[in-house]
Specification:
The protein is 44% helix and 17% strand. The protein contains 14 helices and twelve strands. The strands form two sheets. It has a six-stranded parallel sheet with strand order 2-1-3-4-5-11, with helices on both faces.
Length: 335
């Protein structure tokens, strides 16, 4: 469409929906059925629709507002990463809008899909929400975006090598004589190279596929406890396993708590390892893999600012290191 500004009416006509449906899709996408949302956003993409408020503010050098979208924002790791983001923003005056995708952590998240079209922010920090091709291309074409711990071709990523992190845990346990371990992870509703899956792959790189048994449990505060119950309820596994690895610290802590509740010693009977190095891990003496969440948040803001100042700036991927922190919950296997 040429010769005039594309309006919300044009989008509604192209998508064959009402004006109110377009408005709802842009402002409350979670309330719109997925097929309808797809039609509206695809129409906006095809027409090059830019909300009027954003068009005006772009001429004034931006809105002074960025968005951060995260899965499972109740997790301590999110708070740590967000702390890094806010520390880097400081008193710059930039507003930060945070959206939680806990209930819709799938590759076609309505929240993430609508942000590039709504025009209410200058840029986006994706703090780990997976994306399908449609969303990835929309972000590339419409909105300066930095990804953290997820990847999409053509969008800058700040992350860590979770597979190498799994190898670090595997080498630590191997040196202590552990030859059969359990990896407890919470159920995931999407299929991609998630941090838990990559960590599991790294463990198996070192210890072997047959030596690392995966246990998938429901997401929540009882995940570690359920993992222990599943293992100790299996006579074959219970007689072989000497270590538990949790996909995050709270899963590992739950496992250690349940083992001790059953009268077992940690690390005498079972070693336990977590991932993230949340503040509680040090207090409880948990061996864990330290993730630089705060640093990644700060670097993400710096990278986004570079893109906002010059959309053509060569902002590349950045890879941060993981560090195994040995503490009191791991020890050599008893003879």
């Amino acid at each position: 469409m040429t010769g005039r500004e594309v309006t919300i009416y044009d989008v509604a006509q192209r998508a064959q929906v009402s004006i109110s449906t377009v408005s709802l899709a842009l402002n409350q996408p979670g309330r719109v059925k997925q097929p309808t949302l797809d039609r509206v956003l695809t129409a906006a993409d095809e027409l090059g629709f830019i909300p009027k408020v954003r068009a005006v503010m772009q001429a004034r050098r931006g809105l002074g507002r960025i968005a951060a979208v995260a899965p499972f924002s109740s997790y301590p790791s999110f708070s740590r990463r967000l702390a890094g983001v806010m520390a880097e923003l400081g008193d710059s005056g930039t507003q930060l809008l945070v959206s939680d995708c806990e209930d819709i952590a799938v590759a076609d998240s309505p929240v993430l899909a609508s942000i590039p079209v709504r025009g209410h922010v200058d840029g986006l920090l994706n703090l780990g929400v997976p994306m399908d091709e449609k969303i990835g291309e929309r972000l590339k074409n419409r909105l300066p975006t930095i990804l953290l711990d997820v990847r999409y071709p053509g969008l800058p990523t700040i992350g860590v090598d979770f597979r190498e992190g799994g190898r670090q845990i595997g080498r630590h346990l191997h040196e202590f004589g552990h030859r059969s371990i359990i990896f407890v992870k919470e159920v995931e509703r999407y299929q991609f190279d998630s941090p838990p899956n990559l960590t599991l792959a790294g463990l198996r790189d070192v210890l072997g596929i047959e030596a690392v048994h995966e246990v998938i449990v429901a997401r929540g505060t009882n995940a570690g406890r359920e993992g222990v119950a599943a293992v100790l309820g299996d006579a074959d596994l219970a007689g072989l396993v000497t270590a538990f690895v949790g996909s995050r610290d709270l899963v590992a802590i739950g496992a250690a708590t349940e083992l001790r509740r059953r009268g077992l010693d940690v690390p005498g009977d079972f070693s336990v390892v977590g991932v993230d190095d949340d503040p509680v891990a040090e207090a409880l003496g948990l061996t864990t893999l330290r993730h630089p969440y705060e640093e990644s948040g700060r670097l993400a803001v710096r990278a986004l600012r570079t893109l906002l100042e010059d959309p053509a700036a060569p902002v590349g991927d950045q890879r941060l290191g993981l560090e195994l922190i040995p503490r009191e919950t791991t020890a050599p296997v008893s003879p």
